[in-house]
Design brief:
This protein folds into two domains: 34 residues, no CATH class; 90 residues, GMP Synthetase, Chain A, domain 3. It is an alpha+beta fold and 136 residues long. It has a three-stranded antiparallel sheet with strand order 1-2-3. Strands 4-5-6 form a three-stranded mixed sheet, covered by helices on one side. It contains four helices and six strands; from the N terminus they run βββααββααβ. It is 35% helix and 35% strand.
C-alpha cells in the first residue's frame, strides 16, 4: 500500500505560502504558511498533521491491542502534542482516555504501552514518545 500527499510552496520561507493536498481529498489545497507554522496564522502546519497522524494511528492500534486481549472499547480518545524546537520534532506526547468495559487499569496501561511502542507512526518517528492513560 502506498499513500501520498502533495505540497506546493510559492515564494520565500517566511513570506511565501503553500497548500497541501492528500490522495483521499480530505485535504484539498489546504493552506499553510510561516504564520500558520510558527505563529497563530490561519491554516495547518506539518507538526499539526504529524500530531493528527500519530493520535489516529496510536488510537487504532490501541483498539486492536484491546481487542486481542478480549475486550471491546466503547470509546478511545487521544490527544497528541508534538514538540517542535530548534528546527526538529523533539517529542510526541499521547494523552488517552478510554472506556473499556471489564478491563482493569493494569490491562489498559499495558495495552497503551504496547500501542505506543508498536503503532506504525511511533515506529516512524525518531523522537521521544510518552503517554498517559485514563481508564474511565
Amino acid at each position: 500500500m502506498i499513500r501520498n500527499a502533495t505540497a506546493v510552496w510559492n515564494g520565500t520561507g517566511k513570506e511565501g505560502d503553500g497548500h497541501l493536498t492528500t490522495q483521499s481529498g480530505v485535504l484539498s489545497e489546504t493552506q499553510y504558511s510561516f504564520s500558520s507554522r510558527f505563529e497563530s496564522g490561519i491554516g495547518t502546519n506539518p507538526e499539526e498533521l504529524v500530531a493528527a497522524a500519530h493520535s489516529g494511528c496510536f488510537t487504532m492500534k490501541l483498539s486492536f491491542v484491546i481487542g486481542e486481549a478480549g475486550f471491546t472499547p466503547q470509546k478511545l480518545e487521544t490527544k497528541c502534542e508534538i514538540t517542535f524546537e530548534n528546527g526538529a520534532v523533539t517529542k510526541s506526547h499521547l494523552t488517552v482516555q478510554g472506556k473499556v468495559p471489564g478491563m482493569s487499569k493494569e490491562q489498559f496501561d499495558a495495552a497503551v504501552k504496547n500501542a505506543e511502542e508498536n503503532c506504525p507512526i511511533s515506529k516512524l518517528l525518531n523522537t521521544a514518545i510518552s503517554s498517559e492513560a485514563t481508564l474511565l
